[in-house]
Write a structure and sequence with these properties.
The chain is of the alpha+beta class. The chain folds into 3 domains: 4-44 and 74-224, Phosphoenolpyruvate Carboxykinase, domain 1; 228-296 and 386-587, Phosphoenolpyruvate Carboxykinase, domain 3 (Alpha-Beta Complex), CATH 3.90.228.20; 298-380, Beta Complex (Phosphoenolpyruvate Carboxykinase, domain 2), CATH 2.170.8.10. It is built from 16 helices and 32 strands. Strands 13, 14, 15, 16, 17, 18, 26, 27 and 30 form a 9-stranded mixed sheet that branches. Strands 1, 6, 7, 8, 9, 10, 11 and 12 form an 8-stranded mixed sheet that branches. The chain is globular. It binds sulfoacetic acid and manganese (II) ion. Sulfoacetic acid is lined by residues 73, 202-203, 209-210, 252, 299, 435.
């Protein structure tokens, strides 16, 4: 008797009609043969899927160029299909599930003719973890197959784990002809299914990532009392040797990966990396909040990454590792066969740009696409936490919420309690980046950095966070951070990058009761003397400004928050409405 998963794969192949079906075993030899297929045989947009880079300088590395229209997440083509539209909420696009299925079936019919259907059995989370989930994705491109092998624990062992069960997360992916008018990324939370057509881009096509581990998983968490979050996980070791585990949410392309791999500039402090993008947070047997990173790789923004800004990531990329390393839409030096991007050391005179066209230094257009990415295994990380593979996860003592704001939002603020912390995260706004197809640099509310990733009504999501807080024995302390304040000339005031450890130190000092803080209507602010700024070239007045509360500015901010909350109507929890009223009163 065929198993349920076998019947499911069979059904998809009847619909898509591939030339052949290949189930990945996850081995090293297989990865290399798939890369070879991507170089020699498979074509996207008439071009090879991979180009080999210089393995002496960039071990095991390959370049991938996408279709020019397919370089970022497409939020306007992303749908969440609960049967009930209100359950989906105003934060998502909605189609009724049966019409969505009909549309997708029509688009997918015969889509893999002449191509290989890769079957990817994978786990999100460590196989021994009580919090992990088994999944199967099918795809018709080697780029996605290899990427998923880097980003997840992939192999046939997952099929044994699934056995006869119907309980696994399903992903259907086909690139069609990469035409935007036939691009849809569709989620069916009630069926544990993601169906994505017309795009090969990470967040649209690696279905274990944003689609499952955030949109579908956030819905599972809502029903099962846990949290799926757009967060990094780090352990910060202090001079006493104590490690404090911190989770942190930031919108895409706001320095998450830099913070996750931070190399400390303060003596005695060290950051251990556990994750740079997604955290699943569960209530452990002792009532504390435990975090696991369900992924095993980084899909990070290349531009701006260098030995100066993120030395640990450069070491990760350059490590003679076991897994292939992929560069997507970076520039290329055809003489040295190296990848290149803006911000990397040593800008050459002449290169090929991200589309393979000749490019000269000083040119008006960037060489690498602003959202060009690297895909690399987390096991290459020199400062990987020894707890990374711990199936139980790590106990979280602080959660930080970051955003990109050139004014108003202080460098760091502590919420006096969990409820005020939930309000602090719910009111977050950030200036937009190149990670999604929209105008760049405009302020958009992005509560919990989850607006594009919450798989249900965000008003209910806020209530869920309040509920989890009430279930915790020692709830983590909640903070907001903002590295991006600018002076009148438009220069960043805070140096950022490795120096951000100084803010982490203040957070740990607060947790350990080593320093006080100033009460203000927006939360607890640091006394300037309590942040170690020794050796920094900071303008004293500017520094004091970024750790202070600007009443006038907050009057406008409160109006904007109210406008945003009103989109969710009655679904905004009573507690948050009361918090907003209180804030409004205290700033007026
Ligand atoms: O969504 S991706 O995973 O492709 C990257 C991001 O936007 O965070
Ligand atoms: Mn992300």
């Amino acid at each position: 008797m065929a198993k349920y998963w076998e019947k499911w794969v069979e059904e998809i192949s009847e619909l898509t009609e591939p030339k052949r079906i290949y189930i990945l075993d996850g081995s090293d030899e297989e990865a290399h043969s798939l890369i070879k297929i991507g170089i020699d045989e498979e074509r996207i947009n008439g071009r090879p899927v991979f180009y080999e880079l210089n393995h002496r300088l960039w071990p095991n590395s390959y370049l991938h160029r996408s279709h020019p229209s397919d370089t970022a997440r497409t939020e306007h083509l992303t749908y969440v299909c609960h049967p009930d539209k209100d359950q989906t909420g105003p934060n998502n696009n909605w189609m009724d599930p049966s019409s969505a299925k009909e549309l997708l079936r029509r688009l997918t019919k015969g889509s893999m003719r002449g191509r290989t259907m890769y079957v990817l059995p994978y786990m999100m989370g460590h196989p021994d973890s009580p919090y992990s989930k088994a999944c199967i994705q099918v795809t018709d491109t080697s780029y996605v197959a290899i990427s998923m092998r880097i980003m997840t624990r992939l192999g046939r062992f997952v099929l044994e784990k699934i056995g006869d069960s119907e309980n696994f997360v399903k992903g259907i992916h086909t690139i069609l002809d990469l035409d935007v008018s036939r691009r849809f990324i569709v989620h069916f939370p009630e069926e544990n299914l993601v169906w994505s057509v017309g795009s090969g881009y990470g967040g649209n096509a690696l279905l274990g990532k944003k689609c499952f581990s955030l949109r579908i998983a956030s819905w599972l968490g809502y029903k099962e009392n846990w949290l799926a979050e757009h967060m990094i996980i780090i352990g910060v070791e202090d001079p006493e040797g104590d490690v404090t585990y911190i989770a942190g949410a930031f919108p895409s392309a706001c320095g998450k990966t830099n913070l996750a791999l931070l190399e400390s500039t303060l003596k005695g402090y060290k950051v251990w990396t556990l994750g740079d993008d997604i955290a699943w947070l569960n209530i452990g047997p002792d009532g504390r909040l435990y975090a696991i990173n369900p992924e095993t790789g980084y899909f990070g923004v290349a531009p701006g990454t260098s030995f100066r800004t993120n030395p640990n990531m450069m070491r990760t990329l350059k490590k003679e590792g076991f897994y292939p390393v992929l560069y997507t839409n970076t520039g290329y030096n055809p003489i040295t066969r190296e990848p290149w991007w803006e911000g990397l050391e040593d800008e050459p005179e002449e290169l090929l740009d991200w589309q393979g066209n000749p490019w000269k230094k000083g040119s008006m257009t960037p060489c690498a696409h602003p959202n060009s990415r690297f895909t690399v295994s987390i096991y290459n990380t020199p400062n990987l936490s020894p707890e990374f593979d711990n199936p139980r996860g790590v106990p979280i003592s602080a959660i930080i919420f970051g955003a990109r704001r050139s004014s108003l939002i202080p460098l760091v603020v502590e919420a006096p309690d969990w409820k005020k912390g939930v309000f602090l995260a719910a009111r977050m706004g950030s200036e937009t980046t190149a990670a999604a197809d929209h105008e760049i640099g405009v302020l958009r509310r992005d509560p919990f950095a989850m607006l594009p990733f919450c798989g249900y009504n965000m008003g209910d999501y806020f209530s869920h966070w309040l509920k989890i807080g009430s279930m915790l024995k020692e709830p983590p302390r909640i903070f907001s951070v903002n590295w991006f304040r600018r002076d009148k000339e438009g220069n960043f005031i805070w140096p950022g990058f490795g120096e951000n450890v100084r803010v982490l130190k203040w957070i740990i000092d607060r947790i350990k009761g080593r320093c006080g803080a100033r009460e203000t209507p927006i939360g607890l602010l640091p006394y300037p003397k309590d942040i170690d700024t020794s050796g920094l070239d900071l303008d004293k007045e500017e520094f004091e400004r970024i750790v202070s509360f600007d009443r006038e500015g907050w009057k406008r901010e409160v109006e904007d928050i109210r406008r945003f909350f009103s989109i969710f109507g009655e679904r905004i929890p009573e507690e948050l409405r009361a918090e907003l009223d209180e804030l409004e009163k205290s700033v007026s």
